[in-house]
């Protein structure tokens, strides 16, 4: 016998009206943001504990927050790999075009990278205020390249492209593994990590010292080539990728 | 929304040296419940994946609602293919997968998905990878039905279900298609139970379309003739015989051909018994080793 | 259910006709909707719709907008007349042909028929009544 009764059609929810690329952006941003919040929650505990402990046993001589900057880029980078390698097939298999997924995930990557950069810059700023109040020197330390005296906007201006570069590289690494397989995906790392190299090289300080002391125009050019080139490569690789049936 | 029509024109898909589809051509009208029948490895999943825009043809084309589905946002968004794998996040819970689909799919009906999860008694907290094969099949059915896509394709979905669950699935599917008319394609190599549910069937064999017709028309072409060997032999003279079995002096022959009533009446009066051929048997005869 | 060689819609239509003939479905009585029929017997809705459309064309059923399908007035009588006519051509003629082959005379046949008719009317006198008079059921 029939197990159904006539059911009035439910009015379409808000999300249905959203264009597909916005839907893809929301799901991928969510995938990025939730572990990202955990990251900051978890990272702040050792920072606070370390600052407190060092103050107790000795003297605070350098910024503790600065050490989070590697994690704040590489952790979301690893999430971006997962997004491209695992969420792309699920999205396309359920009706989102590769083009819309690519645009949505790139937009989410930019937002996530910028968000992490913003949080880190704010934390550095707060730390600076604390250090000033306590009379501690807010510096990066001898072998560190971060110029903490640069101020809020220059620091943000350096961290945002760097972290966005991390996101784009992550998406590129993920899509290369998905499309070309393990061996070729690994060989391709030389190219798929290029956005990070290029953006980081643009700044004499930052994640590492490129040893290059570039004119501002040259730096900007490296950033643009790294980000736009990476995003374009990701879009082109994603655009025609066949979606295999995954074994679950 | 009454569903997308579907067509393939000389569709060929190659993977390196293997040819998965070899010039497949067929049409399915908009709306209705249709079957894609083929043995394992006959190219069913490749064909369906191409229809859903998950891959491109090597040559030839597919048309869904009159257009190439590949990267067509409207048609891809209106197509719901459930492959046996489910295309879900296997390490995530049933609940978060369904939530994700609600975010991804514009046609998703969350209320319906919830009801179906309850009807199939699925544990929402379990990871997809921790589900049994039957439960995973049921989850596939939930995804296919709740997607309510104008082209809903269920690839091998009910194979993992036990008998009572399959019956539940057929009932739910039928009721759903009646309430929300659309094009539904069920693919399988086992259709004994669903023969009467289907309007048209496409039979795929070794990457080629063997048959594409209304189920009723196929049934009308198939007949078994059982009787004295000589009488049966005379009755089937000139017809396409797909199977012959001898039991002593009695012979049973399965014929697949255009049959005229006069010939059948003559056979009957010569003492030959006529019987229907279930679609499943016809499929087995047509795709058996001898036809290759 | 639906084991025969005929298309399913033919079998469905035949089943409904048989129910009208036997009086299981009375005139002006509502029949199952296509949807109910499809879900009850697990058959393709389009197939069920085709069968019902054929029955409407034949005048066995008629549609009341927004309500459903009903057995037409006089449907049983018409079906009876048709089936009676077909009985002679489709059922009796082959029997007679076979009888001729076997050398059974018309006289022997008539005697046999009279004998079994007497048996069945003795067993249930109302059978022949209701078969000849459609209103017989109402009494």
From TrEMBL, chain A:
Keyword Transmembrane part of the UniProt annotation: yes
Membrane-spanning segments: 33-54, 74-93, 105-124, 158-180, 187-208, 214-237
UniProtKB keywords: Membrane, Transmembrane, Transmembrane helix
GO MF, one example: hydroxymethylglutaryl-CoA reductase (NADPH) activity
Name listed for the protein in its UniProt record: Uncharacterized protein
Organism: Cellulomonas fimi
From TrEMBL, chain B:
Single GO molecular function: ATP hydrolysis activity
Keyword Nucleotide-binding: yes
Gene3D superfamilies tied to this protein: P-loop containing nucleotide triphosphate hydrolases
Pfam families membership: ABC_tran (PF00005)
Protein origin, superkingdom: Bacteria
PROSITE patterns in the cross-refs: ABC_TRANSPORTER_2
Keywords: ATP-binding, Nucleotide-binding
InterPro entries assigned: AAA+_ATPase (IPR003593), ABC_transporter-like_ATP-bd (IPR003439), P-loop_NTPase (IPR027417)
All residue ranges annotated as the ABC transporter domain in the record: 6-231
Protein name (database record): ABC transporter ATP-binding protein
Native species: Cellulomonas fimi
UniProtKB/TrEMBL annotation, chain C:
Domain of life: Bacteria
Protein's UniProt keywords contain Metal-binding: no
Record InterPro entries: Tscrpt_reg_HTH_GntR, WH-like_DNA-bd_sf, WH_DNA-bd_sf
Compositionally biased intervals (Low complexity): 116-131
Chain segments carrying region Disordered: 116-139
Keywords: DNA-binding, Transcription, Transcription regulation
Protein name: GntR family transcriptional regulator
Species of the source: Cellulomonas fimi
């Amino acid at each position: 016998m029939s197990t159904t009764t006539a059911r009035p059609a439910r009015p379409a929810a808000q999300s249905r009206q959203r264009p597909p690329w916005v839907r893809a952006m929301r799901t991928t941003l969510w995938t990025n943001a939730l572990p990202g919040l955990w990251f900051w929650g978890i990272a702040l505990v050792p920072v606070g504990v370390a600052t407190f402990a060092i103050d107790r046993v000795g003297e605070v001589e350098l910024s503790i927050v600065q050490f989070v900057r590697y994690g704040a880029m590489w952790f979301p980078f690893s999430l971006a790999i997962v997004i491209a390698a695992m969420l792309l097939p699920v999205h396309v298999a359920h009706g989102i075009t590769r083009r819309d997924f690519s645009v949505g995930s790139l937009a989410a990557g930019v937002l996530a990278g910028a968000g992490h950069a913003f949080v880190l810059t704010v934390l550095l700023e707060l730390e600076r205020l604390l250090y000033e109040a306590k009379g501690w020197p807010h510096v990066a330390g001898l072998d560190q390249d971060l110029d903490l005296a640069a101020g809020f906007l220059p620091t943000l201006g350096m961290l945002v492209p760097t972290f966005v570069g991390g996101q784009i590289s992550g998406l590129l690494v993920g899509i290369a593994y998905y499309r070309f397989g393990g061996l070729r995906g690994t060989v391709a790392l030389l190219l798929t990590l290029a956005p990070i190299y290029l953006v980081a090289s643009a700044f004499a300080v930052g994640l590492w010292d490129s040893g290059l002391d570039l004119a501002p125009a040259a730096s900007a050019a490296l950033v643009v080539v790294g980000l736009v080139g990476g995003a374009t490569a990701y879009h082109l690789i994603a655009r025609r990728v066949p979606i295999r049936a995954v074994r679950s | 929304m009454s569903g997308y029509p579907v067509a393939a024109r000389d569709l060929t898909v190659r993977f390196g040296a293997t040819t998965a589809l070899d010039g497949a051509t067929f049409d399915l009208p908009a709306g209705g419940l249709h079957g894609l029948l083929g043995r394992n490895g006959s190219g069913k999943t490749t064909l369906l994946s191409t229809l859903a825009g998950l891959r491109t043809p090597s040559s030839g084309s597919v048309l869904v609602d009159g257009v190439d589905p590949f990267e067509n946002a409207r048609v891809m968004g209106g197509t719901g293919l459930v492959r046996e794998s489910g295309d879900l996040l296997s390490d995530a819970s049933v609940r978060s997968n369904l939530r994700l689909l609600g975010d991804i799919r514009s046609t998703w009906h969350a209320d319906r998905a919830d009801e179906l999860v309850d009807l199939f008694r699925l544990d929402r907290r379990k990871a997809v990878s921790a589900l049994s094969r039957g439960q995973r099949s049921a989850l596939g059915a939930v995804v296919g039905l709740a997607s309510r896509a104008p082209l809903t394709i269920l690839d091998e979905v009910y194979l993992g279900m036990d008998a009572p669950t399959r019956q539940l699935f057929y009932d739910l599917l039928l009721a759903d298609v009646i309430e929300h008319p659309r094009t539904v394609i069920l693919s399988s190599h086992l259709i004994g139970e669903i023969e009467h549910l289907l309007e048209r069937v496409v039979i795929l064999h070794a990457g080629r379309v063997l048959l594409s017709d209304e189920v009723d028309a196929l049934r009308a072409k198939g007949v078994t003739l059982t009787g004295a060997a000589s009488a049966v032999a005379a009755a089937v003279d000139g017809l396409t015989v797909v199977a012959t079995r001898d039991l002593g002096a009695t012979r049973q022959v399965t014929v697949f051909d255009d049959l005229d009533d006069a010939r059948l009446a003559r056979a009957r009066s010569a003492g030959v018994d006529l019987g229907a051929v279930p679609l499943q048997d016809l499929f087995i005869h047509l795709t058996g080793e001898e036809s290759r | 259910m639906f084991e025969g060689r005929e298309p399913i819609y033919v079998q469905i239509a035949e089943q409904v006709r048989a129910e009208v003939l036997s009086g299981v479905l009375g005139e002006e009585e509502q029949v199952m909707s296509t949807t109910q029929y499809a879900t009850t017997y697990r058959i393709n809705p389009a197939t069920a719709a085709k069968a019902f459309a054929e029955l409407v064309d034949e005048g066995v059923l008629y549609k009341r907008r927004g309500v459903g399908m009903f057995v037409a007035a006089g449907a049983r009588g018409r079906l009876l007349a048709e089936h009676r006519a077909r009985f002679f051509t489709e059922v009796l003629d082959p029997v007679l042909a076979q009888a001729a082959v076997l050398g059974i005379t018309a006289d022997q046949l008539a005697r046999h028929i009279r004998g079994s008719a007497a048996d069945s009317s003795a067993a249930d006198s109302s059978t022949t009544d209701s078969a000849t008079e459609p209103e017989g059921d109402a009494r």
